[in-house]
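Input structure tokens:
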């Protein structure tokens, strides 16, 4: 009968253990890494992203600005502290699967009522013949203790690996911030050069319009035109003068935006705007799409986040299984300091093992497990979206570079034609073969075409910066 009872008890324990270890089955998601074989007809693997930014940008003033930004930018420095936080998280996770050892020391005093079982026993207890138990009873303790959770299911080990993946992800996040910072400084710098050139053109056009106004005034004195023509030309001169202040405000704001990126208060930006027309976009080698997986920091960051999420599922799954903990302690305890270090009389030690598993009401564990699975699926979608976005960015910028090159050539010819037409219209006006409105419209069209040419040149330079960023350059 006794043997049968033990069998039943053993069977019940095994059944409960099986129920405790039973884990719900979940359907995860695997990331797809397939990308098109090429961006265009070329399959050349030469990639501009491998060029360091100091070699890619040749303007020494721009190089100096980027170098200052990489040292002082607040957003980048905030990201560096996030890396430090992630590194400390790795240290914390690493320490969790190692034994915790500590030192314990204590002193106290205890007074027990005589009319209790312990008090009655102490009253009749003699430490030595003729020497009773002290009352009240002091207590002194000095010892070492240790606790250790045996990582049977690699729960703690996987948690550490997940922390390492997140640490590496923050490193890639820093690289992504660097790439964006380099691009933002370069784009703002080229915008500043474009504004400088637009301001020069406005000043040149003001001189042309002022000369035309003087001619119209002379024509009015000769009764060849009316006061209306004079007023029209005066209004055009005033409009151009007003335009220069709009451009100056944009220059101030662009300078301050660059200063903000460099983490410094407003001050003039050193630049050589006279070289703007001479700037030629660098030749671009896009390589092949699969290189984006290695070059783009945001893709590698998403990949590491996905790996960490996969490990989180393993950690959450291990919560369903029994955990084994071991605790031990050794030291000395006595009611008199003189007896404290006497061995073995005052020596105490303990060793205990504990095996525990969740059995009833596992909703919290299940919720954590389901959430970990949902987050893993999120990271997969984010990874695939990041790859798709990278490919689209490169494809867009390659097309933009090609179209802007053709547009710039045509706009250059347009500017030459309209610039020549200003002289022609002035000559025709002097000989009364053109009216003043034709002169005004010709000057206005020439100014607009020059602005559009500068804007196109700026867009070309921005596209050069953006394709470098899209390919994953700038952080190395």
């Amino acid at each position: 009968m006794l043997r049968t009872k033990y069998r039943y008890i053993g069977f019940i324990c095994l059944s409960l253990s099986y129920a405790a270890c039973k884990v719900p089955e979940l359907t995860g998601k695997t990331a797809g890494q397939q990308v098109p074989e090429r961006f265009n007809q070329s399959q050349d693997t030469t990639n501009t992203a491998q060029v360091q930014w100091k070699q890619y940008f040749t303007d020494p003033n721009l190089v100096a600005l980027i170098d200052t930004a990489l040292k002082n930018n607040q957003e980048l420095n905030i990201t560096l502290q996030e890396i430090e936080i992630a590194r400390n998280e790795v240290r914390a996770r690493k320490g969790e699967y190692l034994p915790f050892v500590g030192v314990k020391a204590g002193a106290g005093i205890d007074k027990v009522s005589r009319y209790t079982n312990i008090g009655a026993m102490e009253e009749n207890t003699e430490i030595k013949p003729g020497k009773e138990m002290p009352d009240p009873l002091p207590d002194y303790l000095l010892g070492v203790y240790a606790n250790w959770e045996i990582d049977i299911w690699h729960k703690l080990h996987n948690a550490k690996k997940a922390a390492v993946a997140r640490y590496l992800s923050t490193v890639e996040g820093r690289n992504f911030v660097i790439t964006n910072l380099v691009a933002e400084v370069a784009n703002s710098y080229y915008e500043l050069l474009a504004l400088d050139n637009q301001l020069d053109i406005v000043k040149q056009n003001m001189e042309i319009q002022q000369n035309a106004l003087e001619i119209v005034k002379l024509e009015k004195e000769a009764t060849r035109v009316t006061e209306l023509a004079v007023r029209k030309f005066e209004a055009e001169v005033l409009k151009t003068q007003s335009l220069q202040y709009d451009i100056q405000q944009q220059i101030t704001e662009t300078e301050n935006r660059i200063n903000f990126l460099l983490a410094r208060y407003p001050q003039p930006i050193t630049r050589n705007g006279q070289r703007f027309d001479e700037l030629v976009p660098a030749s671009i080698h896009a390589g092949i799409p699969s290189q984006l997986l290695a070059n783009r920091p945001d893709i590698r960051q998403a990949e590491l986040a996905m790996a960490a999420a996969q490990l989180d599922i393993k950690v959450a799954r291990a919560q369903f299984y029994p955990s084994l903990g071991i605790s031990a302690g050794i030291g000395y305890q006595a009611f008199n300091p003189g007896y404290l270090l006497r061995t073995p009389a005052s020596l105490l030690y303990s060793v205990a093992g504990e095996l525990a598993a969740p059995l009833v009401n596992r909703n919290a564990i299940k919720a954590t497990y389901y959430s970990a699975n949902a987050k893993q699926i999120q990271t997969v979608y984010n990874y695939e979206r990041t790859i798709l976005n990278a490919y689209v960015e490169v494809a867009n910028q390659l097309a933009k570079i090609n179209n802007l090159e053709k547009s710039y050539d045509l706009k250059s010819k347009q500017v030459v034609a309209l610039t020549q037409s200003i002289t022609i219209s002035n000559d025709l006006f002097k000989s009364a073969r053109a009216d003043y409105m034709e002169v005004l419209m010709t000057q206005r069209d020439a100014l607009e075409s020059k602005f559009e040419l500068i804007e196109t040149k700026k867009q070309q330079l921005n596209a050069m910066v953006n394709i470098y960023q899209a390919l994953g350059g700038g952080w190395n």
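The beta strands are 100-110, 126-128, 131-132, 137-150, 323-334, 347-356. The two ends are 77 Å apart (CA to CA).
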